[in-house]
Amino acid sequence: xxxxxxPTDLISLRFFSPRVFLNEAITRDRLGRASLLAPQSLLExxxxxxxxxxxxxxxxxGRILGLVSAKACSGAAAWQIDNLRVxxxxxxxxxxxxxxxxxxxxxxxxxxxxxxxxxxxxxVAMRCSFSTYSTDYLYxxxxxxxxRVGESPYLLRPKSSDDDYRxxxxxxxxxxxxxxxxxxxxxxxxxxxxxxxxxxxxxxxYVWEKxxxxxxxxxxxxxxxxxCFEVMFHPLEQEGLERLVNSALVSLxxxxxxxxxxxxxxxxxxxxxxxxxxxxxxxxxxxxxxxAIRVWEPSFMPAQV
Length: 305
Prior knowledge:
This protein is of the alpha+beta class. The chain has 2 domains: 3-135, 3-Layer(aba) Sandwich (Aminopeptidase), CATH 3.40.630.30; 139-283, 3-Layer(aba) Sandwich (Aminopeptidase). It is built from 9 helices and 12 strands. It has helices at 9-14, 39-46, 89-105, 122-127, 164-174, 177-183, 187-193, 241-251, 267-275, and strands at 3-4, 54-60, 63-72, 78-86, 110-116, 131-141, 155-158, 202-210, 213-223, 226-233, 257-263, 278-290. It has a 12-stranded mixed sheet, sandwiched between helices. A hairpin with a 2-residue loop joins strand 2 (54-60) and strand 3. The chain is globular.
């Protein structure tokens, strides 16, 4: 009954009832719920891109009763589900099971899913062997204008590819073990599981360096009139955190809406943002499912004479 998405299904997708079939999956590179009718999604489906997406639907007499779509993260060994539209819990379980089985066949090691904290599909995802490893919070800037950035002992500069391993060292120091177990304990796992920024979104990454060490990382992304930032900061260097946030606001000055994404373990940042005129507007849970990898073993076969 579950099958891959056909081009003829695009008409049915356009007439999904938004009251019944909301997309429950959230990704960090999109603040809203993604649409499979967006230009990038259509390109990923119908053109031979190196990291295309895979989508399955539950059809019924010309209607679509459920849909799940997944795409690769920065590496092929980690996928994220960015579209999950279903009104029935059992269909949701079947769709999640379908994408999990297919991912195993493709050699995928981890499958990520983010759901709003109030999502009715949380329990279904847990039944399908997903486990929660972090909670993320979305903050909106309600202040007027961008603050000035004072002098800092740090050198804020654009990130380069030569910074990758030192950024992993910062990640290892700033992120708790539970999250690193899910997203990557080794450099290769971490690289594979990092979010891939979606077109047409533009993003820039910066690092703060002090005495040859990376002490902070800042990612700024923008699409249309919406800007968003994320930070990662060494736990021993908290006094520069406010300057880091102000740097993000200055870079995004002129956008009509400004947001910050904060992980649950970043308590200092969560305490700071309300003082800098931010308000919490949403929270969502990050889930991961470890997938069994098929291993080929040698076996005996009849000798030919």
